[in-house]
Each structure stands twice: as C-alpha cells, then as structure tokens.
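2024-03-11 09:14:02 INFO worker-7 job=invfold-0412 stage=load source=structure_tokens
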C-alpha cells in the first residue's frame, strides 16, 4: 500500500454537511474532556502513551478534535493524509505505542455514537472508519521516508 492509495481512498470520503460540523463544533470541548477521561481510565494507558506522556496525549486529543473540525469544514484529502502521517511519526518518536491509535479512534467513535444525532454520526463515521482501517498502512509509511512535513 502506498501513499497514493491512501490519497485515492481519502478522496472518496464525503465532506460532512454544515449542520454536522456545527454539531461537532458546538460539542468540541466536551468531547475532548470525555475522550481524555475515557483514556485516563484505561488500565493500560501508560503502555499506550508512555509513562510521562499523559499531558501530550491530552494535547493530541484537543488537536485531533480541532483538526477534524477543520477537515469537516474544508475537506482536503491531501491534508488529511499528510497530517495523519505526520502525527504517526511525531508521536511514535515520543514513545506512543502503535496500538494507541486504535484505542483512540475506537474511543472517539464510541463517544460520537452517544453524543451526536444519527445524521451527524453517519456523516462523521466514515472518516474514522477510514483512519481505523488504514492504521497498519500509516504505521508502515510512517517508518519510511515520506514527503510529509515533520
């Protein structure tokens, strides 16, 4: 699998409606708080993010939510792919486990399924499924030399 295939599959995602993004934006801070609490409650959190990286994880969750808000408002597949690759590389270099991404994305999906209207969840869910399905590819590509920003 190559970056080009990631770009091709990302381009098939449909930008959520303005109403869905509005609901996402309105709840952004509360979503991040719920996400942080769910991850902090995990018994394996130090194995997932490293012993001294709890604050970095919280920053990642806030940055993730703001980034996804921007993607839902102005979706550009190249920005999505390059940013996810950058995140995988940056956080791995800080001792985040590769399994952290699956745990994080699953937690976001669980939160969204409870907090959003059915329409908003159905419009946002494909982005998260796309990221989940492609975790092994992002892990592999993150190890290689790529032209994503550092």
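2024-03-11 09:14:09 INFO worker-7 stage=emit residues=150
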């Amino acid at each position: 699998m190559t970056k080009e295939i990631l770009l091709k599959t990302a381009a098939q995602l449909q930008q959520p409606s303005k109403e869905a993004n509005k609901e996402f934006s309105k709840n952004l801070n509360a979503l991040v708080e719920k996400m942080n609490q769910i991850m902090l409650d995990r018994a394996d959190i130090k194995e997932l993010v490293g012993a001294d990286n709890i604050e970095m994880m919280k920053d990642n969750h806030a940055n993730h939510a703001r980034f996804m808000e921007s993607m839902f408002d102005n979706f550009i597949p190249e920005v999505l792919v390059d940013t996810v690759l950058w995140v995988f590389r940056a956080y791995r270099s800080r001792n985040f486990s590769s399994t952290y991404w699956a745990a994080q994305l699953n937690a976001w999906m669980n939160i969204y399924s409870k907090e959003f209207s059915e329409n908003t969840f159905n419009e946002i869910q494909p982005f998260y499924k796309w990221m989940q399905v492609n975790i092994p590819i992002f892990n592999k590509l993150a190890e290689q030399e790529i032209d994503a920003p550092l």
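2024-03-11 09:14:09 INFO worker-7 stage=report msg="Residues 54-73 form the longest helix (20 residues)."
2024-03-11 09:14:10 INFO worker-7 job finished
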